[in-house]
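User: I'm curious what two different proteins look like when written out as structure tokens. Can you demonstrate?

Assistant: Sure. I'll show them one after the other, since each token string lines up with its own sequence. Here's the first protein:
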Amino acid sequence: MNAEKTGLNLDRLCAQYGWEMARQVHETLGKNAENHITKSLGVLQEDGVYAFFLYQRSRSDGNLGQRAANLLADEKIDLLAKDTTDTDQALAEIRKPNGLADHIDALLLAKRLLEQALIYARYHVKAMKA
């Protein structure tokens, strides 16, 4: 994994993607952005990465699923295939044989990265209201 080899600051990457998530969701959902991000974070924490992407698929998510997939497919992280650009592709990548769901360490890292990015996104959206 690239992050382990280079000593990459993953928190900075989560902050960057958190900002992008907040901006896009806010543009699309407006005042409902904070609520959607908070519910999405809850689904991720309680039910896991696959459930998070299913939840995004079932909702008008303001491209939150797309941005989350972009984070995990980022060349610096490399947890999903580089051509994973949307929620449906992320779901397929997670459940495929030898995919993300088959590698517990990578799956736990993906969950942690998404959690941190969503926490930052929630704070960014709160700041947008101020």
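Here's a second, unrelated protein for contrast:
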Amino acid sequence: MRRKDKKIQDQKVIDEIFLKNKVCRIGFVDDNKPYVISMNYGYQENLIYVHSALEGRKIEIIQKNNSVCVEIADAIEVVDAEKACDFTTKYRSLVCEGKIHFLADLGEKREALERIMLHHTGNSNWNMPDPAIEKIAVMKIVLQTISGKISG
């Protein structure tokens, strides 16, 4: 990171950013081309859980290359100024690198979905029938690096 004064080093702040936000952007590599999508997620200690349909471009990419980059940003505020060069933006952001893995075990998938629901609703006690869980892809991203930045 070029601006060391903007680096977030406090793990509590990093966890707060993960837990406060509900949507992340995930970057994939598709035959040397970038592909980025927004997804809701659940977070737990250097793990991000996501889910999707069982087929589609994202699934095909993961099967070929499970390296991902995840971005989360919050507290975004544009600060107006008299001169164009004096405009700035206040924000907090995280950029993470990791590996995304499909969960096959029904119990693991259920726990991941419960983590996503807990993240979004504060409640993990939901009725999730096995046939419904079997019809979706559930993945975990094991974060290998986390870089946080704050401005303003």
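A detail about the second structure: The CA atoms of residues 47 and 115 lie 10 Å apart.
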